[in-house]
Amino acid sequence: MSAKPLREEMPEVARFIDALRDAFGRDSVDPSLSRGLGGEPLFFAAEAGRRIGTALADAGAGQAWHAVCVHDRYYCQGCDGSCVGTEQRCAR
C-alpha cells in the first residue's frame, strides 16, 4: 500500500495543493488543509468521486469554486492571495 494513497486517487487535487505550496509556502497552506480535514470549512476537495475536507454548509451549486478553472492562472510578485474572490485584478 502506498504511503500517500490520496495522491494516487486525487492527482489533480494533489497537483493543485503542490502549486499552492510552491506559491505561498507550506507554512501558509498546510494549517488550512489540516483544519479543513479536522472539520472546519477551510479546505474541501472532490475528484473522481472522492471527497476530503469540509465543505461550506451554505455553498449552493452556483457558489462552488472549481479548481479546474485555475490551470492557466498566475500569481503576482509578492501576492498573498488576499485579492482572491474580490474585484481586484492582478497588476501584471
UniProtKB/TrEMBL annotation:
Question: What broad taxonomic lineage does this protein's source fall under?
Answer: Bacteria, Pseudomonadati, Pseudomonadota, Betaproteobacteria, Burkholderiales
Q: Which organism is it from?
A: Pararobbsia alpina
Q: What is the protein's given name?
A: Uncharacterized protein
Domain of life per record: Bacteria
